[in-house]
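Alpha/beta fold hydrolase, Paeniroseomonas aquatica. Tokens?
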Amino acid sequence: MALLALVGIGLGLARLRAARAGLQVERIAVGEVPATVFRQPDATGPVVVIAHGFAGSQQMMQPFADTLAQAGYVAVTFDFPGHGRNPQPLSGGLRDDAAAAGALLDSLGRVVAATRGLGDGRLALLGHSMASDIVVRWALDRPEVGATVALSLFGPKVTADRPRNLLVVVGAWEPAFLIGEGRRIAGMATPGEVAERTTYGRFADGTARRLVLARGVEHIGVLYSRDSLAAARDWLNQAFGRSGGGRLDVRGGALGLLFGGLLLLAWPLSLLLPRVGPGQGAGLGWRRLWPVVFGPAIVTPLLLRLLPTELLPLLLGDYLVLHFALYGALTAAALWWRGARRPGPIAAPRFALAAAAVAAFGILGFGLPIEAFLTSFWPTPHRLWLVPAMLVGTLPWFLADEWATRGPGAARLAYPATKLAFLLSLLGAVALDPPRLFFLIIIVPVMLVFLTVYGLFGAWANRATGTPLVAATAHALALAWAMAVTFPMVVR
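Tokens:
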């Protein structure tokens, strides 16, 4: 199994690196804004400035940067304020749209000014989600922007001829209102019904419009879709009278091999963990467990609705740390009330060694490839203190939850049931306060993936060490780390 895992990891890395073969990749700084330039040696094509979406970073836009650079463009990615490795917090947050948009537009403008001279003087913009609106706004009154590509766009300011030559790409599985918005924008160039993948208007006068529905993908998958990458490259080629081709950086399969191999590798590695306890856990059957599962899920969002939660300069992170902490405390109280077994003696040195090993694999083993190929995952100095701050919430929840769902006699499917209850609790919090917590909906699918993957780690670690507290400690640190380095920092 270990050999099979290593083969998958090797193949995944080889395919990811092949997409960048022959390109020069240079990291630069535009003031405090981290940016990266992708180009072929001596390339002098148009510059394409590529902007990421909310809670993203420039790594998320690599597929477009590699694809366009292979086609002869000079592609530039960067981190918005409050995102990735940009040390400047984002003004406004979710409460002041004008201030937030102003900061994002200013950052985009500075990157354009600093990098436009790297190509032949012509300029295009590409943005996803939040950034699709930002690149459209920036291009509206700037005719020097020869073309704009907007992924998952909601653009109320778009007109029939501004911005010039606009391509809208939406995932076919995205919400209907985004698909409808794409049809509305493309329809500005034609009096008839809008057909997908049909160009309306004229490139010569900047009125060209097109809608592309990327097949089989949603809001994040649109970044890795062959349809999206090919549509963006072909649109820019038409707008600038070019015929560049080259490799499309369709990396979904390669990422699957890489991270699937890492997941598979965790099982044989878990067999090397030291034995810590005699087989511990609450060991509750469903008859005694159900209040532990559903009580905290109902009470936590109701109590937090009454309390101030804006404590950290981390957008939504401050609410989540309180949600985790209160949920964990309520779960522990419910376990005590139901008479659950308490932890027995454990070998402290072995416990520390096992927890450190599991945490290192979860943070470094997965984190390094995430940093390289998916999104920013390595904390900069201005974010490092947020890791222990988030751990204050994640540690109580993981300790209580892992203990509740493990042990001899534990209820069947207890582990997925408690995770589902927690995610439903988050959705309940959104329903109680949509204006402030709406963006929690975005992280629920990501949290589901995290809990599923680390649930497997936890089961293997528990079986090897004899106590669920090892995995609970390691996973609490891994999730605290992930939230501290990926959630946007804002001005409080």
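The longest strand covers residues 24-30.
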